Amino acid sequence: MKEMTKANVQGAFAGESQAHMKYLAFADVAEKEGFPNVARLFRAVSFAEQAHATAHLRALDGVADTVQNLGAAIGGETFEVDEMYPAYIAVAKLQSETRAQVGMERAMDAEKVHAQLYARAKTSAAGKKDFDLSAIFVCEVCGWTVEGAAPDKCPLCGAPAARFRKF
Prior knowledge:
Elements: H1 3-32, H2 36-59, H3 66-94, H4 98-126, E1 136-139, E2 145-147, E3 164-166
C-alpha cells in the first residue's frame, strides 16, 4: 500500500475505533438515564463503526492467523506497559492531573495481566491446542482482569465483586 493511502487508512481505523468505543460509553449513559431506544441506537451505530474499523484493519493486513494475532497483542500490551503508559503517567504526574494519572496506572497494571494471558494463549495455539482458560472476569470500572473467580474487591480500584463481568 502506498504511504499516503496507508496513513489515511490508519487514520480511518483510529477514528472508527474511537467512535465504536465512544458510542458504547454513550449507550451506557443513555441506558442509565432511562433512554433505552437512544442506547440501542448508540449500540447499533457502534457496531457499524466496529465493522468499518475491522475493514480498515484488514486492508492494512493487520489481521493474521491466531498465533500471529496473539504475538501482535503481546507486542501491543508490552509496548503499553514498558513505554506508553510510563511516559503518559509521568506527564500526568508532572501536570498534577491526578484522575488521568490514576486511570493510566490502573490500565498499565491491567495490561501486564493481559500480556501474560496472551503469552499463555500463544504457547497453546502454537502447539495447536486451544488455551485452557477457566472463567475470566474483568472489572468494569478499571479493567483489572482475573482468571478463576472475581475477587470480593478489585485490587486496583476497590470496586465490589458485583462490578466484575464474567467472560
